Predict the 3D structure of the following.
Amino acid sequence: MKRYLAPLVCGVLLLAIVAPKKANAQSANGQAQTHVAAAKAAAYEPGQDFTNIFELCAEPKPGRAAPAEAVAPAGPRKVPPRSQWYTEPGKVFDNVYYVGTALGDNATAWAITTSEGIILIDATWDYSVEELIVNGFKKLGLDPAQIKYVVVAVAKPQIFGGARLLQDRYKAHVLLSEADWNVIEKGNFSPDIKPKKDMIVTDGQKLTLGDVTVTLYVTPGNTPGTLSAIISPIKDGNQRHVAAFYGGRAPFVSGDGVQYFPNEVAAMRTWGEQAKRFKENAEKAGADVFLASHVGIDKTLDKVNAVKFRKPGGAHPFVSKTAVSRAQTVIYECMQAQLAWRSGNSSNN
């Protein structure tokens, strides 16, 4: 009799261990799907399309590596053909101009004109800054020598690469958070594209130039010290608006030889929390213009082009009472889904 009891007891014990784990995984998946549904509901309305960042809600696959930046291969860097990154600059508002790239996975660049000079948000690659920003300004009737500040949202070469030229040639001040200045110092970047350390941004700091104020927030997740901004006023004839710019596109654990966060859970949790916090700050500020950090986030170039065809007094393609909140909701809800899935997976280990 005893020899039959032993397997029975083992089976009961195994069931007692496996059943709760399976239930936890199912519960976690249910929670994740609730967050995915919330993100999906926020991702699209006509004229404001955030379906590209809904990809952040993709369910993780077993064995998938933690998110990290690709490291550039050794040897001479290959500069992509101009046709892959160039796009014509465009006037978006009376005091906002697009001077960024055409690559969907690369950064935008926004020129904010003021009564005392120009604030530039992000500086594109070192190989594209001359054509996109310097020559782009001239095509728009702007003087690149009037660039007083270059706000660098993240310490990545597609964002800060052009800052060194603007710093050296026009004596523009370059601004990053302390954490991202440290990434530039320690990262595997070519020394000739690293801007000289200049102004350090703290959370909530206000940068005022003439009649425009940019409130800067340190919103880590994409890098340890990613910057986001609320810009006011944005001018459209007699109308006044408030713009919100959220730095980065996704959470990363490391990049360019620098560890950002201990693990992907920490990166995702931080990114989600910061998206929610920035959403609240933007709503309090009355932000009704979303300026993307990457052209793929909201199909920026389609909207820049649409401005050219806007009828007098017609709706502005960039103005939306809900766009900023919806973009941040997609990021936050997708991060909550990712965290829920991982909590379920960890219970199975």
